[in-house]
Amino acid sequence: MPTFSLERLDPNPGLGPLALGSGELLAPGAVRVSLMAHYQRAPLTILNGSEEFSLVLSRTTGLVSLAVGVLPWLELQAQLPGVIHQSGADVSTVLSISSPSRSGLGAPRLAARLGLLGTSAPEAFHLALDLDVRLPVGGSGALARDQGVRGQGRIMMGKRWGPVAPALELGVLLRRAVSTDSGVDSLNGVGNELRAGVGLTVGYALRAEVSAIGAYSWRQQRTSGELLGGLRYAPARPWEFFAMGGAGVGAEPGSPRFRVLAGMALLFDKPPPPPPEDIVYELVQGLPRAPAEPQLEPEPTPPEPAPPEPTPAPPEAPPEPETDTDGDGVVDVLDACVHEQGTREFGGCPESSGPLVSLTRERLVLHGQVFFEVGATTLPGRSRVLDQVARVLLEHPEVERVVIEGHTDAEGSSDSNQRLSLARAEAVRDYLLRKGVPAHRLEARGLGARKPASSNGTQAGRGENRRAELLLILGEPAPARSIPAPPPP
């Protein structure tokens, strides 16, 4: 039996579809570990005249994979396969070919994935170059390794549009050609190949996936291909479970009638850096009170004679009324619409506008949030909440600083979510700048997925988590009332 690797499927150890890469890389410091069990039916069938023999009828393998994000543009990978059990027809007396070993260790795979485009945000177009080698070690009789070093280079690309993420892969496989003296043409010329694959993933925590992969061996002018489909489910980080199956076509050794695989993966993201300690997690702080006038001690006076009969004191002058510019009965300090008549129930604004912002003597409260589409960093259009925030800020100069916090859902890596949330906060800041709010009063911060407003397990909850919130501070923040940022979970 000649020595060559029968396996034609190269599972993806990193981000993207299971059967091919999408060009997206793990964030620096992130680690993904996966375990997979794999069954193939009739991956090696040979012809002798009109007779057909399944030299390998049943084959069960296992695979341990590791992927590590090293730099924003570099991901390193390692895989260790093994044949757990395989069996087939004994053709030693007919074709003088010995049966392969029933089990054995496969050739280790080492790879580097280089990001060329799209490493800064999950919604970007991703393009990467993947280079890998398989070392000529392992069980030579189990059809789990090649005679020499095997190399492969692939270009991967992909992009996400909401829940839909297509992927494309093109590559070339280089390995030493196999030749035998058995006269069996299907085993002669196994060697270099051109490879291609396309895939489509739909969903978030629960994802459906379909992939088609093909290869062309130019020495033997043979083609092969497979169509695979499966499901992936990530109930909560770091866990993910997956299963896939499909059928193969073609005469190239290693193309099974069908294959099924299942396994699990763990994704450990590097925790994002904690926010600055001076973030105040209050909507506002109270207006500073005017300092009380100092009390002067009276000078000693000589004793006086008994006072005459007390006379009634004159009545105190009534306090000066507070300013009400628009005359709606809500004083300016409590009026969210200083120059427009409204009602007390709507914070001094007209009933038609709705209480988007309300004022008290101690707090300024926002009754709305700014939401974003999946992966988007631009506002969907005009925002009534931000329009009224800009109006209130321009009418109330005592609001000296506005901290704009951008938030994301839990999809994507922590590094990408951090950049995405900051871009969303800056989009809100730019909106308020265009409305005339001075730049020195606005500060944008990105918090990623660390402060969800709802559960990331549902589509509605993820939609609520893709938002921007505004922390409005009246006056300078007092150290005694500052609440430091909570530690990341």
Automatic annotation (TrEMBL):
Pfam families: OmpA. Residues 319-329 have a biased composition (Acidic residues). GO terms for cellular component: cell outer membrane. Its main location: membrane. Residues 291-329, 443-489 are annotated as: Disordered. Signal peptide: none annotated. SUPFAM superfamilies: OmpA-like. It is found in: Cell outer membrane. Residues 359-476 form the OmpA-like domain. It comes from the Bacteria. Residues 297-318 have a biased composition (Pro residues). Keywords: Cell outer membrane, Membrane. This is OmpA family protein. It comes from Corallococcus carmarthensis. The lineage of its organism: Bacteria, Pseudomonadati, Myxococcota, Myxococcia, Myxococcales.
